[in-house]
Specification:
This protein is mainly alpha-helical and about 475 residues long. The chain has 22 helices and two strands. A two-stranded antiparallel sheet has the order 1-2. The radius of gyration is 22 Å and the shape is globular. It starts with a helix and ends in a 10-residue tail after the last helix.
Amino acid sequence: MNYRSVAYVLGELFMVVGALMLLPIAISFYYREGLTIAFLVPAALLLFIGILLIARKPKRFNIYTKEGLVICGLSWISMSAFGALPFIISGVIPNYIDAFFETCSGFSTTGATILTEIQSLPKSVLFWRSFTHWIGGMGILSFMIAIIPKSESHSMYIMKAEVPGPKAGKVVSKIQDSARILYIIYCALTVIEIIVLYFFTKMRLFDAVTTAFSTAGTGGFSALNNSIAGYNSSLIEWIIIVFMFLFGVNFNLYFFILIRRFSSAFRNEELWTYVAVNVASILLITLSISNNYDRITDAIRDAAFNVNSIMTTTGFCTVDFDKWNTFSKVILVFLMFIGACVSSTGGGIKVTRIILYFKEMHADIKRTLKPNAITKIRMNGNAVEKKVIQGLNSYLVIYLGILVISTAIVSVNGFDFTSTLTSVITCLNNVGPGLGIVGPTGNYASFSVLSKLVFCFDMLAGRLELFPILILFVPRTYKK
């Protein structure tokens, strides 16, 4: 382990996050809330620690897989730890564990909350909550790589640790250029959503910005107690449906469209599977709940909104789907596991993994029937390497292990089985709302301190694809 290299990169990260934390100060000034100190103190602390860590550049700036994973894990934990301070200093969330939970939920783009009253909170705090979604959506380390020059090898190992999906990809030859391009697309889509919400609906600019931040990061924090339902606008809901869907798509495909590689974009297996599962779920739920609506168009809109909200792991709500029939709720739970596409801002197991698991099952059946046959698993016409399949299987085993252990620990609270299980599922898959007491109208305030810490672990582990967090608990990691 090259400790100096790890410390140096963490120092750069602290300075970036400290600078970003100055934005809520401007919001506090504008609305005359007097909460400057709540953001200035943690920002100054981050900048000070960052300067100390980068004061001495390491002689051997070596970053490999292990260093990349450790940097990624420590970065996200540190961001959440410091990001919780504005909630404490402002007095909005007096308990540090609750504040840490809220911030982990923000940066990991989960959207689970312990708050029972939201829209009366200071605007600067509401901005910070949604802004953590936007920061965490594409990844703060990816942002840092995009703006701070680094060698290609160093950037690659950091990017591989943070970018969601079975395999970190590059849209161009250089990692830094790839990160910059993806962030430009991310920013462009966010700005477009803000413009559409502000100019084509009656939404206030502040609400348009915070809603776009939460949609872009597929997080789900809203400025209203009733989430998107509080706006009581079908137009707003349809606009958000479109953008939730778009942010759940692999961002590499947008780049292919920009450079006119249309075949690479529109012949992508994951994209069409994502579309097929999305549309099929909407149709099935619409048919299942249509008897409860006077107009079929309302049933379609509610089904489309909540299917996209759950599948992209955004977590916005327009209706209490916990009151839907069992069939519809089962579909939503399945979608919580599937999640969005790789290299999107969504969570879950990811559509690519689901496709490959089914292809692997099909190949195993063929091998059983024809032991001597040569079977290759292909994705988008390319053969999938054996080590990728092995990695997928390892991921699934660890994922299920964390799910089982976390559920067992949380069950000590004594809540009903549905609430207990779905609370873990939604945190591990970065969804937010579940069923029961953590449903669309509920929250996580009643859980114990131990359970909230388990949820924090699950949220960060789920966002970072498990390994960057797990490696921090392996003693061998810290050997030189």
